[in-house]
Write a structure and sequence with these properties.
The complex is a heterodimer of chains A (288) and B (423). With 288 residues, chain A is mainly β. In chain A, strands 3-4-5-6 form a 4-stranded antiparallel sheet, with no helix packed on it. Helices cover 7% and strands 35% of the residues of chain B. Classes of the chains: A mainly beta (288), B mainly beta (423).
Chain lengths: 288, 423
């Protein structure tokens, strides 16, 4: 159980660093278990879900201390359930969330607040949505990627209703799936890459380090209960990643939650109370 | 006519760009079939390298605090994964020092299955320590004199919802009570539970007033349950969160491998109720309304967590995380009640207090502060901005405050060049 707060650290921070600011306190309306945070760099805002109150909180980008959100999306019309994630599309001023309990993707106006209806809902058997846990959006190439329980689905950004995915990345070569408990997803539009963070899990109640380490192809080697896989746009089917960062005693991947700093060539990975910064400029090349 | 001219310029430009885009294989014209043929024998580029930087606090923190006054030991839960989660055992009596104090014993390691240990309870009579995990919801039992990397003597898995917060042993009635944040619930088990034990009863549902429950205390004499609530609320139904495979009411408790039921897209019920202390009948069951609620601006409640009742005065003691205080309420407080005492201020060394307990034998109040890595001991009737009698600390006084717990995500803010990590 953790304190409900957002800790901010300098991008160059290392070791037992002091946060540059902490957004915390009752006015913030945060719950613990904020499993996502989205940065809208264009409008300088942060979006954070509160699953226990079925709400999405939007803060000023520079929020600090016990500061109230500037907007809250919450209410019967929103159809929000255990809202666990949020993505923002600053170009089209939209906010998306993958709804694990309802097998749907809800899209809102990102400048909306209060009890508002989704402007689009992706939902139905053709979508193949099955326990979707993350959604990310690429407003430049007009794509929307969804991390299912056992597959990575890519849709057109504006898909709505019962629409089949454009590409599906799933199968034993991918490492994506139930066995690996894939949990996070990022898109790098300029380089047309999909980056997925995975955590191999055993049966309920067991710790990930107790789970099996090796895959059939041997790609995810080295005691790797965790790995990060990178795919190219257009990859479809049972496709091995274009690149992998495996969990090894050297890499010390702390979790499966990710952030991208393309300018610095850094992949930021968080989990288990740690944040690791990996310098991986290969991922951020705009062509390959 | 300027508008149509501009329109055509934009259109022509867009079409030219699109042509270049497709020419170089970047457009939607790249079919799935083409990609398949190019990728079927792909060998991944391996990027394994050490992190350039790692942000982590290596110092343990204190959450739940329980006392074995008879043997002069205090047990504290450390749920900080970056320090290795553990139960730390210290003597209750020691010379005052501002230096880091090493524990007398430490229960830690993979065999312990502590997970994110949040709540602790103990039975001196039966020599048992009980721990609950905020991650799996598992309830584990250890011998009271355990040390090192030891497995639990018993563990409760059963149908118990995941993400427990608090646990309390009602010694008089030999029952264990557990709060679950995710599904606004109090579950009751016999102390002598077996692994697949069904709960004896539970309190859960929209009438209960439970909203993101944390700490719990049971007064076996007055037959009351006291629960601290953060106030994040949604409508839950009795039985929600129980892990019953395909028969589970919701899939969110099932984790991976089990699809569970798809919930229909129905209107949300979420609300911010504000922080509260709900008081329930010890024998309440199902969707039962509380006996009374302490709630309102005069209460000063702010992210209340650990809760205890003074065995002498009957006062209710609340670790009030949100404003670094401990609140004391009259034994029959209800509604928008003002605390009878408030322990708060820089002299107290409290920062992010989460756990509290009373050593009735020595007339002392214990307060565990998560952020400052400090457990502080005060006179039982402490009030205002007073210094503790003595402290146990796991980090030096000038060490950074603990901030990251189990972080659920990371983000990068390019404007401020900052890494953001929500708990």
């Amino acid at each position: 159980m953790s304190q409900p707060r957002i800790s901010a650290y300098a991008g160059s921070a290392d070791g037992n660093a002091q946060p540059t600011r902490v957004i915390q306190g009752p006015k913030t309306l945060q719950a613990r278990t904020s499993h996502y945070i989205a940065v809208d760099a264009v409008h300088d805002e942060l979006a954070v879900p509160n699953p226990f109150a079925q709400a999405i909180l939007i803060f000023r980008g520079g929020a600090n201390g016990n500061e109230a959100p500037v907007r809250v999306i919450q209410g019967p019309k929103t159809l929000l359930t255990a809202v666990d994630n949020v993505a923002v599309d600053p170009l089209h001023r939209e906010l998306l969330t993958a709804s694990f309990p309802t097998d749907s993707i809800l899209v809102f106006r990102s400048d909306a607040g209060g009890d508002v209806e989704p402007i689009r809902i992706l939902h139905g058997p053709k979508t193949q949505l099955d326990r979707p846990i993350r959604v990310e959006v690429d407003p430049i190439n007009n794509l929307m990627a969804v991390m299912n329980d056992h597959a990575l689905l890519v849709f057109n950004r504006t898909d709505s209703g019962d629409v089949a995915p454009k590409w599906i990345i799933a199968g034993p070569k991918t490492g994506i799936g139930t066995r690996f408990g894939t949990r996070d997803l990022k898109l790098f539009p300029e380089g047309r890459k999909i980056i997925a963070g995975a955590s191999i899990r055993g049966p309920r109640g067991t710790r990930s380090r107790e789970a099996s380490n090796d895959d059939e192809e041997g790609f995810f080697r080295g005691g790797g209960q965790r790995f990060i896989g990178v795919w190219k746009y257009g990859d479809n089917g049972d496709v091995a990643p274009w690149a992998v960062l495996n969990a090894t005693p050297i890499t010390k991947i702390p979790g499966s939650r990710m952030a991208l700093n393309p300018e610095g060539g850094d992949l930021v990975i968080g989990g288990d109370g740690r944040v690791a910064v990996y310098h991986l400029p290969e991922i951020f090349q705009k062509t390959d | 006519m300027g508008v149509p001219e501009r329109f055509w310029r934009v259109m022509v430009g867009t079409l030219l760009l699109a042509a270049v885009w497709i020419q170089f294989g970047y457009g939607p014209g790249v079919t799935a079939a083409q990609q398949r043929s190019n990728t079927s024998d792909r060998r991944p580029m391996v990027l394994d390298r050490a992190p350039a930087r790692m942000i982590a606090d290596p110092n343990p923190v204190f959450r739940a605090v329980v006392l074995d006054a008879e043997h002069g030991e205090v047990f504290m839960a450390n749920d900080k994964e970056s320090a290795g989660t553990s139960v730390l055992v210290y003597p209750t009596q020691f010379p005052p020092t501002n230096r880091i104090l090493e524990p007398r014993r430490r229960i830690a390691g993979p065999k312990t299955d502590l997970g994110m240990v949040c709540g602790l309870a103990l039975s001196i009579e039966h020599g048992e320590l009980y721990s609950v995990s905020g991650e799996t919801g598992t309830l584990n039992v250890y011998p009271l004199d355990s040390t090192g990397n030891v497995g639990p003597r018993r563990r409760l898995r059963g149908v118990m919802p995941r993400a427990s917060a608090g646990v309390f042993l009602d010694v008089k009635n030999d029952e264990l009570f557990i709060t679950t944040e995710h599904v606004n619930r109090i579950s009751v088990y016999p102390r002598t539970f077996q692994e697949d034990q069904e709960p004896l009863r539970f309190i859960q549902g929209p009438a209960t007033g439970l909203g993101d429950p944390h700490g719990i205390y049971i007064d076996g004499t007055t037959n009351e349950i006291f629960v601290s609530n953060h106030g994040n609320w949604r409508e839950t139904q009795p039985g929600e969160g129980e892990v019953r495979g395909p028969d589970s009411l919701t899939r969110t408790s099932l984790g991976y491998n089990v699809p569970g039921r798809v919930v229909p897209l129905v209107p949300s019920t979420g609300q911010f109720l504000g922080p509260s202390i709900t008081v329930h009948s010890r024998t309440a069951t199902g969707n039962a309304a509380p006996l009374r609620i302490i709630h309102g601006p005069h209460t000063q409640l702010s992210l209340p967590d650990g809760i205890y009742r003074d065995p002498v005065s009957g006062e209710l003691i609340v670790a009030n995380t949100g404003d670094d205080s401990v609140l004391f309420f009259a034994k029959d407080a209800a509604g928008d009640a003002t605390p009878v005492r408030v322990l708060k201020g820089p002299a107290t060394k409290m920062k992010g207090p989460v756990g509290t307990s009373i050593d009735a034998k020595r007339n002392e109040l214990w307060v565990a502060s998560w952020d400052s890595h400090v457990a502080a001991v005060f006179p039982r009737m402490a009030n205002g901005n007073i210094a503790p009698l003595r402290v146990i600390r796991t980090a030096s006084e000038n060490a950074p405050l603990a901030s990251m717990g189990r972080i659920g995500a990371v983000a990068y803010d390019p404007k401020r060049k900052e890494i953001l990590a929500p708990n």
